[in-house]
Amino acid sequence: MPAAEFVFVTTSSFGKPESADRSLIRSRCMRGRNAREGSRRSVRQAKRDSQLQDQAMRLQPLAHPLPTNSTSPHTRLQHREGENTPSSDIAPWLANNRVFSQFDAEIDKKARLVQHRFFTFGSILSAIYPIHRFVEFESTQDPAYYWLYQDDDFSHTVLFASSAFFDLVEHKALTARTQSYLQTALSMLNKRLSTTESHAFDSTIIIVLILASVAAIIGDYDATWAHISGLYRIVMLRGGLDYLRSDPSLHFKLDRLVLSWFLSTGQKLQFPTLPVSRTPIQRAPRRLTPDGLDPLINAGLLDTKVVLVLRDLQELVASANESLSSNSRLSGDKFQHPLATIQSRLLELENEVNSITSECLRLGMLAFLTTMYQLPGHRLPYNHLNNRFQTSLRAMESSTPELQNLTTWLVIIGLITVWDAEESWLRAIWDNIAPGSSWAEVHRILCLFFWIPSIHNVPGKRAFDKLRTEKSVRC
Fold it and tell me: Are residues 237 and 363 in the same domain?
């Protein structure tokens, strides 16, 4: 016997339901009755049920049990290129479907689908923004779970993003189904934006942000530009910089988009940003920061302007690693503010750096920042960064052990973000600096620079293995 499903209705002071509720009562009492098999209504209902089940099943792989060979659930976020089973790699904290099985008899298909979408959406955010492992944002936005139930525009956008996510981690173009979800989401968004107060809803900016993020990830520059332009107008209507100050989480995500756009196209966006602070980040007492750059600084090989920025990034990375080692989290605003100024200053130094070594380091730091916005198993198209970084690294000399260590970090961070191990010019550089090194030795060098183990160890080891594999193939 199917489990009972309850709906609450209001009544008058005499206990009489409203007319609309009486219709609802009649429809629920007659549910499943007078239904002729093969009728158009039955066929439509069967099709809807099938679609709901299909969507739920498509999300199910994210809920498989995870391997337990890691000390932290977050370090199990590993997707190897070429694999078509993104489940255990992409959703490190997602509950197993069996957790929900006890409720299956108590909730309808739509509620179960909302659950799937909610946890899938959370998993996607965790994968795309890995800093959530050590940063705690106190967002002013309404809960996404509420929006999934109450906001159809948001729900359809999440459905599109989830479907696109699966397409991308399976290394294929957006499917026809995903494209149809996108068209529905865009149609609903356009209808919403036609109203005068659409910018006042918190969900509106999140919808546009999701669409812009997916467009950036797949390299659709026209769509990315259109959505970012819309975001700019909404942010200005909401109060500009003051609005961003009130929501560091949103500010962080917008800054990732701004950086992604510039590193892809070379074009700077006019977007509200915090005033660029040149006051160094206050150093925490007794905190150890990576010291691989100290010999280069002491030898006068780096521009002063670059040194000032790298010191702040060193401090930020050290605080992140300290939080991870102590199982604590940094405050979102205390993380986002220095990160925003570091990013702005690095972008300001475009064409302003005098030495090749300093320019390589500047580009390497920008590449490092991109790892805070990623999709495991899918590389974002940072064409501008790729070209400038390659040109600079090929021109840089690695004549001393200190420069060789820096080059080691630059090669690995470049492989994580923009390059391929098969590129002959990169192979030549690697063979010159670290021809027979083990991963343990390379990892020790990487940690002398900018390195967050929970984010970079897995892709870094994968990049190193590809270098070794490529060498053995050539031999």
Answer: no
Question: The pTM is what?
Answer: 0.75
Please report, for residues 209, 330, 385, 395, 414, the alpha-carbon distance to residue 367 in angstroms, rounded to integers and kept in the order given.
22, 22, 8, 18, 7
Domain check: are 252 and 361 in the same one?
Answer: no
Is a pLDDT exceeding 60 seen at residue 259? yes
Q: 281 in a domain, yes or no?
A: no
Are the C-beta atoms of residues 376 and 320 closer than 8 Å to each other? no
pLDDT score at 227: 94
Give the Cα separation of 94 and 40 in Å (integer): 39
**H or E, element range at 341:** helix 332-348
Asked whether residue 406 is assigned to any structural domain, the reply reads: yes
Amino acid identity for residue 310 in this structure: L
Say yes or no: 360 and 424 in one domain. Answer: yes
Are the beta carbons of 340 and 249 closer than 8 angstroms? no
Is 257 in contact with 213 (CB distance < 8 Å)?
Answer: yes
Give the span between the Cα atoms of 56 and 59, in whole angstroms. 5
Residue 252's φ and ψ, nearest 5 degrees, are -60, -45
Q: How many domains does the chain have?
A: 2
In three-state secondary structure terms, 136 is: strand
- How far lies 96's CA from each of 60, 169, 398, in Å? 9, 20, 50
Which pLDDT tens digit goes with each residue over 54-70? 444 443 333 332 223 33
Q: Are residues 357 and 443 in the same domain?
A: yes
Is the same domain home to 250 and 306?
A: no
Shared domain check, 398 and 324: yes
CA distances to 183, 207, 231, 315 from 219, in Å:
18, 18, 18, 32
Q: Within this chain, do residues 338 and 205 fall inside the same structural domain, yes or no?
A: no
The whole domain housing 214 covers 105-273
Cross-strand partners of 135: 330
Name the amino acid, one letter, at 64.
H
Helix (H) or strand (E) holding 312: helix 304-325
Specify the pLDDT at position 17: 59
